[in-house]
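ingest -> validate -> predict -> emit
validate: passed (alphabet ok, no gaps, 159 aa)
predict: started
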Amino acid sequence: MYGPMSRNAANAYVKVSIETGVFDADPHKLIVLLYEGALKAINDATHQMKSGLIAEKGHSISHAIAIVEGGLRTSLNKEVGGELAQNLDALYGYIVNQLFLANARNDLKKLDECKKLLGELREAWNQIAPVKAVTAQPEHKISEPRDALAPRKSSYISA
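emit:
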């Protein structure tokens, strides 16, 4: 009953939803979306590895690598970020290497390690989310109902 057409429709919906989230996201949220995308790809690869779906596993791991390497790692500003950015760069390099090895060796432990590291980084990133400024709203006083035809007080000074 639910064949390839319904899967394609669901995939299209997910893609539109993700793209909409990306267009509406601030820079901080974009990094969160990258972490979530990499984690989803690793989860997919884990299930595919357990199911013996070799080509699909390779595609999912390649997708995770692309997100870490081309998204997270390239977003680092090593000049401004100093030692922290250097450490993150090295950690992202390590994660990419572990993902390569997980793919080549069908190693679930390496996938779990990458998932754990990226999950911890995502949580740390969420902890430093910028606080949105709350603007003070003027208090609205509820006034007595007034007669729509009654004259209103004018703020103009008459001469």
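The radius of gyration is 26 Å.
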